[in-house]
Amino acid sequence: MATKLGYSTYALKMVDPFEALPKIRRIGYDAIEICMRKGWPTYPGDFDISSQKSLKKLSERLGFPSPIFFGSIDVCAPENAKDEMIKDTLVKFGMAKELHYDDTPILITTTPGHNAPQWDKGKEKIRDAFLHLGDLASEHGIIIAIEAHAGTDFETPDKAIWMIEQTKHPNLKLDLDISHFYVEGADVEYSVNLCAPHSVMVHIKDGVIEEGKVKYCLTGEGTIDIPCFISSLKLNGIDNLPIYAEVSVQQSDKIDYDPWYTAQFCFDALNSAKNKTVT
Question: What global pTM score does this model have?
Answer without folding.
Answer: 0.96
